[in-house]
Structure formats: C-alpha cells, structure tokens
Amino acid sequence: MLRRAIRTIRRHRLTGLLVNITPSAFWLTVFFLIPLGVMFYYSFGERGAFGEVLLGAENLGLQQYRLFFAPSDVSIPQAIWWTVAWIVESLLPFEFSLAAGEPTPYVQLTLKSIAYGLVTTATALVVGYPTAYYIGHIAPEEYRNLLLVLIILPFWASYLVRVYAIQLLLSSNSLVTTALGILPFYEAGTSLMNTQFAVFTGLLYIWIPFMILPVYASIEQLDFTLHEAAMDLGADRFEAFRRVIFPLSMPGVVAGSILVFIPSTGAYVIPELLGGTNSQMIGNFIANQFGASGNWPLGAAASFVLMGVMLLSIWIYQRYGEGDLV
C-alpha cells in the first residue's frame, strides 16, 4: 500500500515535483541559503572592542563596504580614480604617477587575486587547448580513453596531497630545482617555495584539467570536414583553424575559462601552503578576518565582493558563451 501511494504521488505532476525537490531544497536552504543570509546580514554590522559582531540599529550600515573600497577621508569617485590610476601604473613599464594616492589594501589584494586568476586561465588555455585538440582530433581513437584517464588521474588523489607534492617539487635541492640549474639566471638547489611562482604553479597544476576537459568535449563533437572545406576554398591550415575550428570550439573555451578563473581567483589553500607574505590572495584575507583578526563584518563584506566577481564571471559566460558548463 505504501509503495502504491508513493507511486501515485510521484505520478501526479505537482506532488511528484515537490517530492523530488524537497530533500535537495531543504539541504540547500539549511546549509547554504540561511548561512549566506546570516553572513550578508553580518556584513552590515561592526566589530566590537573584543571581536564581537555589533548588529544594533546604530551599528548597521555600509561602513564595511566603504572601508573595503575607500579610506574614510576619501570620496568614492576619488577612490575609483585612484584604483584606475593604480592599475594603469602597474601595467606601465616605467615609473609614472597618475594619482595622489592608492586604492585600499583590500582592493589591491582583490585585483591581485583577479590577476592571478587571469594569468592562470590564460596559461591553462595556452597549454590545455593543444592538449585537448590532440586528444580530441589527432590521437588514435584507441588511445583517447587512456589519455583522458591520465588527465583525470590527479583527481584520484586528495587536493591537499597534490599541493604537498608541489611543495616537495619546489623545495630546495629537489629534482626540479636541481634540474633548473642549467638556466643561467637560476642557482641550482634554490627553493622556489613561498614565491608568486609557486602559487601560480600550484594554481595551474590543480585547475588545468578543468580547461582541458570542456575544450575536449567541444572539439570531439566538431565536424572536421568544415576544416577541409575551408582549405579547399583557399585557406591555409592555420587560417582554417582560426576561422572555423577555434570559433566552433569557443563554448568549451569559455566554459573552461570560467571553471579555471573562479576557483583560481578565490583560492585559499594554495597561496596559504605555497606562497609567502607577498603571495597572499583575497581568500586568505577573508579567512584571516574570520580567524585571527576576528573582524567578521569586514570578512563578510569581502566575501560578498568576491562573490560579485564570481557572478560577473558567470554573467560573462552566459552573455558570450553557448551551451552548458560541460
């Protein structure tokens, strides 16, 4: 009788939908939406003298967001100009001052994290696209599954184990640091740990499979007779690739870029274990506010700023990408 009643409920369109989504909706609400709402509420509060969160009517406001984006004695337009000027000055190959001040350390840390994410994404694309192209089109079909398993193989080990493995490779007198002694500007055996290079290496190693797999999925479905047709019409091999194959694989490129950029920008473990004081990212700052510093309102505000960066990335995917994130 019970089984029959359950089948009857599931056959009904509305009750069946409710039965199917209730467990996941309950889990999502209790363990994601409610904590997210509490943290959003905290972002409008203030830190007390002993680290407590003050949420009285006189404490609520946008002061944490203002503190994040602009010093107390600087207007918002002026802070925006300082931020733009600081970015331009950072990109110039020579010393040049455009503004009288700099953006807040929090904004600088956020921009630095975005730069890490962009460089990691660009490098993953440069390395991952040829790899995916080879697996999806050039490699013999009987070896493709083996190559895909080799790409996925690092996922079989713990995230922390892979980061610790990079620590061993970049430590002093390791196989890698000894082999790099052939370079004229590097002293053999010198440790590469606690550097920006170590953080970048860790980000690239951990997240590059998320670039290769979506690009492979796009390339594997392409009709390469279009490439041959373009060459028959007078295009050389590179021109046919640039005008036909690459645009058709763009959904995979965009999906892979989003899947690499988002976790790279918000990384915490990799800069914590591989980087030094000059290699910290916004994720480390947020963790520190909820930990040692005990400034939960500022940490919550920084979290939502970072979330805004992630949502902007997803919007870019929806605006310029096609297909699903697969």
Describe the structure.
This protein has about 325 residues and is mainly alpha-helical. It folds into two domains: about 1-35, no CATH class; about 45-70 and about 105-320, MetI-like (MetI-like fold, Orthogonal Bundle), CATH 1.10.3720. It is about 70% helix and about 0% strand. α7 (about 160-170) crosses α9 and α15 packs antiparallel against α16. The longest helix is centred in the middle third of the chain and has 34 residues, at about 105-140.
Q: Give the termini separation.
A: 42 Å
The CATH top-level class label of the largest domain: Mainly Alpha
The mean pLDDT is 87
Determine Rg (CA atoms, Å).
25 Å
Q: Going across the biggest sheet, name each strand in turn.
A: 1-2
> Structural class of the helix and strand makeup?
mainly alpha
Into which percent range does the helicity of residues fall? 55-70%
- The helix/strand series, from N terminus to C terminus, equals HHEEHHHHHHHHHHHHHH
Spans of at least 5 consecutive residues with low confidence: none
**What is the CATH topology of the largest domain?**
MetI-like fold
Question: Looking at the structure, what is the overall shape?
Answer: globular
Indicate how many domains the architecture comprises: 2
CATH homologous superfamily annotation of the largest domain: MetI-like
CATH level-two architecture of the largest domain:
Orthogonal Bundle
Membrane topology: Multi-pass membrane protein
Keywords: Cell membrane, Membrane, Plasmid, Transmembrane, Transmembrane helix, Transport
Organism: Natronorubrum aibiense
Protein name: ABC transporter permease subunit
